[in-house]
Design a protein that fits this description.
With 62 residues, the protein is mostly helical. The protein contains 3 helices and no strands. Helix 1 crosses helix 2.
Length: 62
């Protein structure tokens, strides 16, 4: 986990411009964390297909 954080911080640092703010860094870190979480959920099979969502929505709308 620590190595991933360092990797993310390096990526962000490389993309910073003189106009970048600390808020920009926080947003990028949050995005990278969300991506990691999503990838983990996909690996664990914790996803719902679009077809299943449509099916579920139809039952809710009845």
């Amino acid at each position: 986990m620590e190595n991933r954080l360092k990797e993310h911080l390096r990526k962000i640092a490389d993309s910073l411009t003189p106009e970048s703010t600390l808020e920009d860094v926080y947003e990028q870190l949050a995005l990278l964390e969300d991506i990691e979480l999503s990838e983990k959920e996909v690996k664990e099979g914790k996803v719902v297909t679009q077809a299943k969502v449509k099916e579920m929505a139809q039952s809710w709308l009845k």
